[in-house]
Specification:
Length: 161
């Protein structure tokens, strides 16, 4: 089947218009990670001391997947190269796989370098949990003794009085 010359002319015109507009003539390829793209991070405890030998995961927030996991060195440092452009967060993970701390969200583009840190929270003393529910214990005890309401105005009321 022969094409008419007007169809060929329209095709050439369309190619020229797209080329002048800067539009790609081929389907765009996914961006390849570059070894020049680097994330460098430090893990510190609550006293700003490095935390060695702890697992740090790099989570891609656009895909919600873990891209890499690393172990911090003696200085609490981790580094990852060759990741794609995206938005990420670093997660510190305990031996059971639970996230115990997260860093700040950051974005990185191909060829960029990002430096960040993750700070672990302070550890609670062994007796901290004893006083966590003191208010609930006081209310439960008062209810067990017959107090039905306590207010900021007036006198407390108890049944039978």
């Amino acid at each position: 089947m022969a094409r008419s010359s007007s169809v060929g002319g329209v095709s050439r015109l369309l190619v020229c218009v797209l080329a002048m507009a800067g539009a790609p003539l081929t389907a765009s390829q996914p961006e390849r990670p570059s070894p020049a793209t680097i994330v460098s991070a430090f893990v510190w405890d609550a006293a700003n001391k490095p935390v060695p030998d702890i697992t740090v995961a790099l989570r891609n927030l656009r895909t919600a997947r873990l891209d890499r996991t690393m172990i911090s060195d003696a200085d609490g440092h981790v580094s990852v190269r060759g990741i794609g452009s995206s938005t990420y967060v670093l997660e510190v993970v305990n031996a059971r796989g639970a996230v115990i701390a997260t860093g700040q969200v950051f974005s990185i583009a191909t060829g960029e370098r990002v430096a960040t840190f993750v700070r672990l929270g302070s550890k609670s003393p062994w007796f901290a949990g004893i006083f966590n529910h003191a208010g609930a214990i006081a209310v439960a005890t008062a209810a067990g003794l017959g107090a039905t309401a306590v207010g900021t105005t007036g006198q407390p009321q108890s049944p039978g009085r």
